[in-house]
Known about the structure:
Strand content: under 5%
Oligomer: single chain
Amino acid sequence: MSSLAHTPEERPAPGLSISYAAIKRGTLWLLGASSGIALIEPSPYEIVFLLVLFVFTLTGIRFSQKLLPFALLLLGYNIGGIVSLIPWMDEGASVRFTAVSVYLMITAVFLAGIMSQDAAGRLETLRRGYLFAAWVGGLAALLGYFNIAGLGEAFTLYGRASGTFKDPNVLGPYLALPIVYVLQRIMTGQIGIVRGLVTLSIPLAAVFFTFSRGAWGVLIAATVLMTALTFLTAPSAAARTRIVAMSAAALMAAAAALLVALSFEDVRAVFELRASLVQEYDGGVTGRFGNQWRAIPMLLDAPNGFGPLRFRWHFNQADPHNVFINAFASYGWLGGLFWLGLMAATCYVGWRLVFRRGATQLHAIAIWSVLFVTILQGLQIDTDHWRHLYLMMGLVWGLAALVPEGEAMGAAVQPRALRTTT
């Protein structure tokens, strides 16, 4: 009789004292914790994902029909990339580039699918794992920047903290989500401000020492958006008052930390250089923005694009530094149009999601605040191979596919009401 109290998701496996749900959460924690190491290929994230996929497949994964547009948009985008790859099949780098795109599509659809059950618990598990990864990556970044134990060469690039990533411009945006999460938890009283600031210390310092303009912009904009959405959806006046008070306290703490950092001449010199909106390599006909404008008419005459990683063969830079241009350049017209469609559909889904009441609303607000700004950041950098972008997209679509709690309760109650009236 006691076994009947367990759902298949919760029932302990034979001979084990832990449930399937706990095992799944454990593998999800590993997935989040491994997401912050991108110095080697394949990365630990790829390996752990295979483990997670295996564990979840054992008990089945439910995919809602509402995820079909998401899957089809990603599929069309990758089909465009495969077609664009055909003339360059003999180039290993191009083949690997396309294969990574397909792999990331699978991870995103999978993450969307697993939100159909135990969504709040799985989100919390991923959040904890991601925060652990942020501390590991952030600590490595600081050890590298200050060249502690001779780690400067391993964990920096061009004198900027890169930590466990190959590029500081990727490490910084990656750290935005756990920072926004902690700030939200401070504002809503889930953790105290002292504990929260201690938790923020390493990731926040790492973002600063990446000296990445994009990362600074993403963090600031996502924090403002998260604060506004959390305030607008707060359940009471007391909660809104706390959000305002905690926001002011966090802002003063951040300003004080910034003043301390800028008191060091070496740090101030790099900060002043990097804080400029336009760098020397951005301007001019052959600069970053000039190359982007010159690429547009060329791509209008190239239905198949330039081919994966072929932008560098036409211009004096490795990448377009604009994910929308890169979509047309590396994935052809087909891939480019599907990427635009994917971003537009994700924005529609995300903005609807954050105003939907429920147990996962705060998670949705934190994730969407960072994801929306990251989508906009695509105008400034190539984000199409960022693992955390696909992670956030999958979670947002998965949450949006859930039946709203009010409707679910109504569906459960309705049959009983019918029985009592007949």
